[in-house]
Amino acid sequence: MTKPALIPHEVILVDRIPQCDFCSRPGPYDFALRGGGWAHGCMEHYQSLRAASTLGTGKGQLWVTQAQLDGNAPFEA
Ligand SMILES: [Zn+2]
Asked: How does the average pLDDT of the chain come out, rounded?
């Protein structure tokens, strides 16, 4: 199982992963939208709707849980 690693301003630790704002999958990306505003999204919607191609301050973050860092929960991003 793939395990994420924390990266300041890019991959951050949270208590739970919200649902994607555009479908029923988990939405671990918190990102700036191309048309303005921010959203939570799955990888597919993050890649198709994001304003910036990389993570970072003002662009987007990938949220992960402690269980994912420990390898005890699925991580698909
Ligand atoms: Zn989605």
From this structure: 95
CA of 38 to the centre of ligand 1 (A): 14
Average pLDDT of the residues in 17-30: 97
Nearest to residue 28, comparing CAs of 13, 9, 8? 13
Q: In this structure, are residues 29 and 46 in contact, taking their beta carbons and an 8 Å threshold?
A: yes
In the reported structure, the alpha carbon of residue 43 is separated from the centroid of ligand 1 by a whole-number distance in angstroms of: 7
Asked if 17 contacts 61 with a C-beta cutoff of 8 angstroms, the reply is no
Put simply, whether the predicted model's pTM sits higher than 0.85 gets the answer yes
User: What are the boundaries of each domain within the chain?
Assistant: 11-69
Closest C-alpha to 55, from 2, 11, 6: 11
